[in-house]
Design the sequence.
């Protein structure tokens, strides 16, 4: 999300902008002119590769200068351990719950099974006498 305002901090309303994204000097995509309502706009982008990208915001017909103005923002995208394994970490609580349940249930099941078999064996030996 970014905010567009004048030098004195006033939101620029209904201002036409174009967003351009490039990497290594090659333009990857650009938008058609967008009217910015209330000075705020949300733009979503998924980056497929790490690297340094250039986000250019072209303000068309700036009301103060009556010219087009371009602002350039470098964006450094890197792959992090957490980001690479986000899908695993989001399901981690479920996986841990299953592991804990199995770890607790198996020994308890074996104890009850052994007791039942021992009781059955004792009963059979008692009836044979």
Sequence:
């Amino acid at each position: 999300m970014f905010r567009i305002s004048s030098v004195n901090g006033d939101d620029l309303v209904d201002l036409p902008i174009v967003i351009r994204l490039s990497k290594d000097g090659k333009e990857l995509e650009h938008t058609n002119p967008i009217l910015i309502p209330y000075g705020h706009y949300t733009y979503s982008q998924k980056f497929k590769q790490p690297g340094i990208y250039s986000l250019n915001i072209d303000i068309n017909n700036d009301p103060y200068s009556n010219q087009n103005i371009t602002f350039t923002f470098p964006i450094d995208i890197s792959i992090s351990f957490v980001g690479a394994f986000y899908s695993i970490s989001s399901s981690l609580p479920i996986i841990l719950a299953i592991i804990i349940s199995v770890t607790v249930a198996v020994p308890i099941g074996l104890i009850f099974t052994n007791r039942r078999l021992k009781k059955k064996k004792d009963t059979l030996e008692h009836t044979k006498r």
Q: What stands out?
A: The CA atoms of residues 61 and 67 lie 5 Å apart.
